[in-house]
Design a protein that fits this description.
Low-confidence stretches: none
Radius of gyration: 21 Å
Bound molecules: zinc ion
Largest sheet: 7 strands, mixed
Mean pLDDT: 94
Distance between the termini: 21 Å
Number of strands: 16
Strand content: 35-45%
Number of helices: 4
Helix content: 10-25%
Order of helices and strands: EEEEEEEHHEEEEEEHEEEH
Shape: globular
């Protein structure tokens, strides 16, 4: 996924070219204005014009002419008239797609700022670095960068069938492709082989990169792959997986929403089979 409209930045431009977009969060919920069948973001010189107090503010970069700012609000902040706080999953498809993906950056920066206040080594209060998006400890110098957890996600194919599994955490009836966090010291390909083996007991080969997607729930980076079945019978890991099986395009269970790379992988497979 490459988005050309947004240019990441750390230092705001000296001269602003009009009011910026405000990505203001109460916990992980974004402040939006509700319209008939869409939502929009506040765009004004200062968020205080809405009677809101920013606990912290981070310049994220430029969307065309407009600056983009991530803002954390108090947990008891009230939405101004005509506005509401919404979870990002709830507004996918309602907010402009480019702004939506900037919002996924914004929520992670705000949450990082909130949850990284003290040095993990010596316990002192951290300070924001002036030259890059990081916090540093004034005593021991340890740097704390925004937290990012890489996770692999893989579509395994066997002829005209694909492997789908049901995690215990999924909504009722929904199945998806296999995913899991990368372990320290592991390559992405090793993570793919390990996760598929651990979760459903099969071996894979021909691992190919598919694409990647930020997944801000709360701070993952999903790295997508396709792979082919290489051997073994499906045996579930009971702690994680409730059910798993081989499915063909004309016999599919409920699938993840269009927001996810999981669905992009499945749609890619179905299109290849002529089922989409
Ligand atoms: Zn320290």
């Amino acid at each position: 996924m490459v988005r050309k409209k947004f240019v990441s930045g750390f230092v705001p431009p000296r001269e602003s070219s009009g009011p910026p977009w405000w990505f203001a969060f109460r916990e992980s919920n974004l402040l939006v204005r509700r319209e008939a069948d869409a939502v929009t973001l506040p765009c004004m010189a200062d968020l205080s014009d809405l009677g809101l107090v920013a606990l912290e503010s981070h310049y994220l970069g430029q969307m065309g002419e407009k600056g983009c700012y991530a803002v954390g609000l108090a947990d008891d902040a009230l939405p101004p008239p005509g506005m509401s706080f919404e979870g990002l999953r709830q507004i996918y498809g309602l907010l402009d797609e480019d702004l939506f993906w900037v919002a996924t950056r914004a929520v992670q920066i705000v949450q990082w700022d909130r949850t990284h206040r003290f040095c993990g080594c010596c316990g002192l209060s951290l300070r924001m670095k002036a030259t890059e998006r990081a916090k540093e400890c004034p005593q021991c110098g340890l740097l704390h960068f925004p937290r990012l957890s890489p996770a692999i996600i893989v579509l395994v194919e066997r002829g005209r069938e694909l492997l789908l599994a049901r995690s215990r955490h999924f909504p009722p009836g929904m199945y998806s492709v296999i995913a899991g966090f990368v372990e320290p010291g592991e390559s992405l390909e090793e993570a793919v082989m390990r996760e598929v083996k651990e979760e459903v007991g099969i071996s894979v080969k021909d691992i190919k990169y598919f694409g990647s997607q930020p997944w801000p729930f709360p701070h993952s980076l999903m790295i997508g792959f396709t792979a082919s079945y290489a051997g073994g019978e499906i045996s579930r890991d009971d702690s994680e997986i409730e059910d798993a099986g081989w499915f063909s395009g004309d016999n599919l269970p409920s699938l993840p929403g269009k927001i996810s790379i999981a669905r992009k992988l499945i749609d890619w497979f179905l299109a290849k089979q002529g089922n989409l």
